[in-house]
UniProtKB/TrEMBL annotation:
Source organism of this protein record: Pyramimonas obovata
Gene3D superfamilies, A to Z: Nucleotide cyclase
Coiled-coil residues: none
Protein name listed in UniProt: Guanylate cyclase domain-containing protein
InterPro entries according to UniProt: Adenylyl/Guanylyl_Cyclase_3/4, Nucleotide_cyclase
């Protein structure tokens, strides 16, 4: 078991057939800062069960706490678009810097709500694009609705709100859009299988279920 800092240093030097398992983020006794822990083991030991991490608290779940494919689950894809072209008179680099700050706030929002709605982050393959999993379908729907509502309330840089893609829009006096506009697609059912990602050790899911969720996000 190693910390994320050690994992980053040895990642490219591991022997073939090494299985990487994310153990989550833990508060360890005697250490002020929380630590992301990784389990490295030969793939031939992948079926062996190891003791749980003896930490004071698990702050972010790891691979073994991810929703199981032995039960129905909900897969969700959520993303925000890339930076739009700058309006006339606005420097593109300045807009991109402001937009990056807004995307960072979106990422923080997603991770805060995951803890609240008992969701699991599988991966963030691109900045602001997430693959998520939920054991409870109702919690997944509540997450999606809350994320869209909270997205309207973020403290956006004025440069971002000045673009037509992020400008505030109202319908019948009710705020419909403001700031980043997230696309969220989800599907509930059975995944074919799950396995740890080689780059992060976190759970990823395969089969028709995640494919359906990805297509719904793109509608």
């Amino acid at each position: 078991v190693v910390t994320e800092a050690i994992w980053t240093k040895v990642q490219g030097r591991l022997p073939p057939l090494t299985q990487v398992i994310a153990l989550g983020t833990h508060r360890l006794r005697g250490m002020e800062q929380s630590q992301v822990l990784m389990e490295l083991a030969p793939s031939c030991l992948s079926d062996r069960e190891f003791p749980a991490v003896p930490s004071a608290a698990c702050l972010v779940p790891g691979y073994r706490q991810a929703p199981s494919v032995e039960e129905p689950l909900t897969i969700m894809f959520a993303k925000v678009p890339g930076c739009p072209p700058a309006p006339e008179g606005v420097d593109q680099e300045e807009l991109e810097a402001a937009y990056d700050a807004a995307v960072a706030d979106w990422c923080d929002l997603v991770r805060r709500l995951l803890d609240r709605f008992r969701g699991y982050e599988c991966k963030e393959p691109e900045r602001g694009k997430f693959t998520l999993a939920f054991a409870d379908f109702r919690a997944a729907v509540a997450f999606a609705v809350t994320a869209q509502a909270e997205l309207l309330k973020l403290d956006y840089p004025p440069l971002v709100l000045a673009t037509k893609e992020c400008a505030e829009e109202e319908v019948d006096g009710a705020r419909l859009f403001r700031g980043l506009r997230a696309s969220i697609g989800l599907a509930h059912g059975w995944a074919s299988f799950q396995k740890p990602l080689s780059s992060t050790g976190r759970a990823d899911y395969f089969g028709n279920l995640p494919n359906k969720a990805a297509r719904l996000m793109s509608v």
